[in-house]
What does this fold into?
Amino acid sequence: MSIKSVISTFIASSSAVPICITRFALSLLCLGSVASLQATYESWAAGEFTSVVDAEAAPGADPDSDGIVNLREYAFDLDPNEPDASPEESGILEFEGSHYLFIRFPRRTDASDLRYEVRAQDGVYDLCDGTKPYDWVMGSSASQPGLVSTDNSTNPPTVTIRDYEAPLEGSTFRGFLQLFVVLDAIEQTVDFVTVGDLGNPADSDGYGDVAYEFEIGECEITNDQYAEFLNAVASEDNWRPKGVLEPLYDVSIGNEARGGIYRHGEAGSYTYSVKPLMGDKPVIYISFYSACKYCNWLHNGKLRPRCRRMMVSTTEDGAYDFSDDTVTISNGLVRRPGARYFVPTEDEWCKAAYYDPTKSSGSKYWRWATRSDIEPTAAAVDGSGVIIIDTPASKLANYAYSASWDSDLDGSVEAGNLSAVASAGAGSKSFYGVADMDGNVTEWTETAKILSHHTANSNWARIERGSAWNTEGGRWKYRVPNKFSEEIEGRGFRVARILP
It folds into this structure.
């Protein structure tokens, strides 16, 4: 789990004499897993708390009620169990004859999973240029705050950083500085497997023939991966330049027991954190358009603009073009030529799940995505949602309400639940090595379905495939069209791509 803490210093000026207003705002961000070198948040929490999965050990918790959350206690080397005074300072600094905004804070140097970023902006979105935020240790330049000094007599050392331009003289106005403490040493990645065997036939229902090589995600997109996406682009989640578009975050993801991501703050400064034990579970309550925007973000290089917003360079163009409101409202969205990451079509999905060129008899398509014509065993899970494997060759799938465990840690077991992705083992994967295609969650495909009773919106639905924790059947039962904006607890998505 990873978190980001924000301290913002605002300057307002109605005369030649500036007035300094300081505001401290906490934001929680999940940007990746914690590294295992030197000190890490997890090793620190293990020494400070009884259990790292307890609520009081969470990076956003404040067990000593001193107004400093655990992440900041860790970043500034404080005691999370005893009240501390905040070591952070901000205000106006005289530097080389001019006056600048500054931020001063202790910088822990023995942690492998921390990064300290200082951003200077004239307005909340003025520097939203699609580039990654800069890090203070990169020094002073025309586009970065300036490192004024480091006091090594303190432990940890105390760093002072000033604004990089617009000295506070006369009528000059400057917006604010922000200090971000980021716990994101390891970036989330998507593991892909190759689907080859060009020229394969379709199955008996006419699906699965794909005449090109492609890659598909080994697993469904997880809460860890989707939270990284939200923290990169969803500081606000109501950007609607065209049409009626669905938000990236449905509140059920945070409110419901099987949802895995919390949202914090207010629109314009939203941040997100993954619930305990839910990082490796599939993200749910996701619309088809949200899945497409995630693909756009991957296509565009996983940019994290300074304002963390949805825009052309992050989510609104790339594999899918969201600029035409008539297309988006009618669900006419199609994959663009040259798309690098995308939601798989029904044919791509079916081939990856069921096709096996080595199958010795009958159809080259298995009845189940566990490389079997026999119904898999409904999987049981342990107390953290990991599937229990009896033997390496077991054919297991999470369906029929079999995976019951207490995902929200409230003492009540959810009857049927998500399981950790790929935890059913190699024996339960498809021929190409894809996991959970019959179980865990059903999945969006890119294929549109024309429904006669929705003639005004001829592409009203998208096809979903597979089985889920709360469904009973296999491939032959679950080819279902659903409205592109629908967000439910039993459906997620995975990503495919053209070979790089």
